[in-house]
Write a structure and sequence with these properties.
Layout lengths: L1 H36 L2 H26 L7 H29 L7 H22 L13 H31 L4 H29 L2 H8 L3 H20 L12 H10 L4 H11 L4 H8 L3 H15 L4 H11 L1
């Protein structure tokens, strides 16, 4: 019995260590790309990747690695940190969907941050009051404040699910088809599904024993989702090579014309794309075409949307393939 438990413990340790190494590689590549691109979309991806990496490390240490070694105030500090990073992950998740899909009308991020902060502070105060100081579990089946605590957690879970559903509705209305829409629909669906699991996790912390709670934690779907995310991002870096496109790889204008025709770009968008392909900045393009810098940004945004790309490096890579 002990030998089996030890083997399971070793397997979980191996999976998490491998996942953290993989996550560290992805985080490093994302930081480099964000420093090179400095676009809003890359910042959203970096925020999501960073928050989920920190959350996974903290959550693993809190609920599995330490186990019975932690107690008292140390337990409460670890759980509070884990819950804080969880709220950050969910907020970054929603923000990434909105920015990548260009559906900022889905929700006011300022109010979401305020609501998440209120939820976090309130839930931690109630957790402390209800006894989460010496144990990972909370028995909240009776009493007025127990009911309030359950309503608070349930309300937050349902609220995030509603946001995910709204994002999916807006995506279906705004985009008919395309890889970008499908990816963001998947991200929204996974957000909804994960919050359903979180509801089950909340239930488990209220009604399950501490031993069963750690076993339930091992089934956290975010472990698998994070592994898939890391593999996808590393494949993206390998396939699109966004960090290594240099001036020597710039394609001739004929290749830009192919892309412009294939994706039905306007004449002005084609002109802007030619200058992007030549390595000119937004300010230089504005001067060259005698238009404002904001107009250049608008044209580039439309080009990204039509060509289903996210950055200058990605569109230049696509042009080079056309050539």
């Amino acid at each position: 019995m002990n030998f089996t438990s030890l083997n399971i413990h070793d397997i979980y340790n191996f999976i998490y260590i491998a996942l953290m190494i993989l996550g560290g590689v992805t985080l490093t590549l994302t930081i480099i790309l964000n420093a090179k691109e400095r676009g809003r979309q890359h910042k959203a991806i970096l925020l999501f990747v960073t928050s989920i990496f920190l959350y996974m490390v903290t959550d693993f240490i809190t609920y599995y690695f330490l186990g019975e070694l932690a107690s008292g105030s140390f337990v409460f500090i670890l759980i509070t940190l884990s819950d804080t990073l969880f709220c950050l992950v969910i907020t970054a998740w929603v923000y990434a969907i909105m920015v990548l899909a260009k559906i900022e009308e889905a929700i006011n991020m300022k109010w979401m941050i305020i609501a998440s902060a209120i939820y976090l502070v309130s839930s931690q105060i109630l957790s402390f009051y209800l006894g989460r100081y010496d144990s990972y579990t909370l028995h909240v089946d009776k009493g007025f404040w127990n009911i309030i605590f359950q309503i608070l957690n349930g309300g937050y879970d349902i609220g995030i699910m509603a946001i995910g559903i709204r994002c999916m509705i807006l995506l279906c209305k705004k985009y008919k088809k395309g890889a970008s829409r499908n990816i963001n629909l998947l991200m929204s669906a996974l957000l909804i599904g994960y919050m359903v699991w979180i509801s089950y996790w909340d239930y488990s912390t209220w009604y399950k024993t501490e031993e069963k709670l750690l076993n339930i934690y091992a089934m956290d779907p975010l472990i698998l989702l994070y592994a898939i995310l890391n593999v996808f991002l590393i494949y993206y870096f390998y396939k699109n090579d966004p960090l290594k496109i240099s001036e020597s790889q710039i394609s001739p204008d004929e290749a830009v014309n192919i892309i412009a025709k294939r994706y039905m770009l306007s004449e002005r968008e084609r002109e802007v794309l030619i200058l992007v392909n030549r390595g000119l900045s937004n300010k230089q393009i504005a001067t060259e075409l005698s238009i404002s810098e904001n107009t250049v940004k608008r044209h580039i945004s439309n080009i990204f949307k039509k060509t289903e790309t996210q950055s200058r490096h990605e569109i230049i890579y696509k042009i080079s393939k056309a050539n």
